[in-house]
Amino acid sequence: MTTLATAPLPTVGAEAPGFVLDSTTGSKVSLAEFRGTKHVLLAFFPLAFTSTCTAEMCAFSDDYAAFAAEDVVVIPISVDSVASLKEYKAKYNMGVQLASDFKREVSRAYGVLNEERFLARRSYFLVDKAGILRWSFVEEHGGHRRENAELLAEIAKLRA
User: Fold this and answer.
1) Domains of the chain: which residue ranges?
2) Less Cβ around it within 10 Å: N or C end of the chain?
3) Does the pLDDT of residue 3 top 60, yes or no?
4) Concatenated DSSP letters for 58-121?
C-alpha cells in the first residue's frame, strides 16, 4: 500500500510546483499557462460555504481589478468538487474563478494538506511571471486570513 505524504512547503526563490486543475470556468487552469505573462497568487482555502472562506473569496472578487492592475491572476484552490465550487461561486456572485484540488495532489505538493481533516490549510503563494515562488504564508488558524491590502503589498514588492 502506498502512503501519500504531504511535501514540505516550497522554498521561496525556487520554481513553484506546477499543476493542472479543473476550474469553475469549465476548463482546466495551470500555473504554466501564465508563465511569462502574469504573476499568480495561489490562495488555498479549506472549504466552500464557510464564513471565513466566503469573506475571503468575495474580497478577491471585490478587488479583482486591483490584482489585475498589478498583472496578477488570483487562483483560489480548495478540495471541493467543481460542482460545489460552481454553486458556491454562483450563490455569492464571485468574479474570480475557483479551482478544484479534489484529489488533493496540489495541496500535498505545496505542503498545505491537513491529512487529518483532508483539506487544505489556508495559505498563499505568490509566483512571479518566471514561475518562481516569491512569497508564501500559511495561516496558523483556518479562521484567519490575510487581507487583500497585505497581499497587494507583497505583490508590489515584485516591482522593486
Assistant:
1) 20-159
2) N
3) no
4) HHHHHTHHHHHHTTEEEEEEESS-HHHHHHHHHHTT--S--EE-TT-HHHHHTT-EETTTTEEP
Structure-model confidence comparison of residues 143 and 127, the more confident one? 127
Beta carbons within 10 angstroms of residue 53's beta carbon: 22
To which residue does cell 474580497 refer? 59
Judge whether 45 and 146 are in contact, CB under 8 Å. Answer: no
Chain centroid, CA 116 distance in Å: 20
Three cell numbers written together for 57: 473569496
Average pLDDT over residues 99-128: 94
pLDDT above 80 for 141: no
> Catalytic amino acids?
53
Pairing of strands 28-30, 113-114: unpaired
33-45 pLDDT, tens per residue?
999 999 999 999 9
CATH topology assigned to domain 20-159? Glutaredoxin (3.40.30)
The type of residue at 62 is D
* 66: CB partners within 8 A, 6+ apart: 148, 152
Grid cell at residue 55: 469573506
